[in-house]
Amino acid sequence: MERESAEERLESEIGRLLLSEEAIRQRVKALGADIRTAYSSTPFTLLGLLNGSLLFTADLLRELPPETEVLFWRVQSYRGTVSTGFPEGLEAERGDFAGRAVLVVDDILDSGCTLLAVEKRLRALGACKVDYCVLLAKRRARTAGAPVPRWIGFEIPDRFVIGYGLDYEGRYRGLRSIRVLAEETVLPEK
Ligand code: HPA
Ligand code: MG
């Protein structure tokens, strides 16, 4: 019997395709062009939120002017497929943001509790202008006061997704496409 292709294996074992590598590539390029125009006369810092925005920030950065400064903060609010509602790690993050414009990059806008906490931390550190660019935004209600992103790559259904930086228990971040995690997915041993 013919061997299943890698793509078929992903589809059956990990989850169905939501956004292809090519669709993501094109959208990131378009977002980059928009951001270049919007910030053409404002120096800014690109602030990626780890771990999820690792690939998105790297790809977006390559669409921005060469002098663009980039920093990463580490923040976590998910355990498995469930949000704890309490972003952890921001107390340890600092930086010289006084009077600075910051563009925060995140993989996914879900409840909005992470962006709300990041906004508070950046304001406390003196940032004068904070915008948000998220690759994905789930269609669902947000935490009261959560910032509204200036840029959204794709609006998606309220399902748990993986790939292109998004994980399930630390796995699948390296997938080039974004997939809806199959409910029956069984993790291989670490
Ligand atoms: N997948 C992975 N990480 C996430 C998600 C998701 O759907 N929502 C919030 N963090
Ligand atoms: Mg995660």
UniProtKB/TrEMBL annotation:
InterPro entries xrefs: HGPRT, PRTase-like, PRTase_dom
Pfam families: Pribosyltran
Keyword presence, Membrane: no
GO cellular component: cytosol
Ranges in coiled-coil conformation: none
Gene3D superfamilies the record matches: 3.40.50.2020
EC id: 2.4.2.8
Catalyzed reaction equations: IMP + diphosphate = hypoxanthine + 5-phospho-alpha-D-ribose 1-diphosphate; GMP + diphosphate = guanine + 5-phospho-alpha-D-ribose 1-diphosphate
MF annotations from Gene Ontology: guanine phosphoribosyltransferase activity; hypoxanthine phosphoribosyltransferase activity; magnesium ion binding
One of the GO BP terms on file: hypoxanthine metabolic process
Limits of the Phosphoribosyltransferase domain: 20-168
Keywords, in A-Z order: Glycosyltransferase, Transferase
Protein name: Hypoxanthine phosphoribosyltransferase
Organism (species): Methylacidimicrobium cyclopophantes
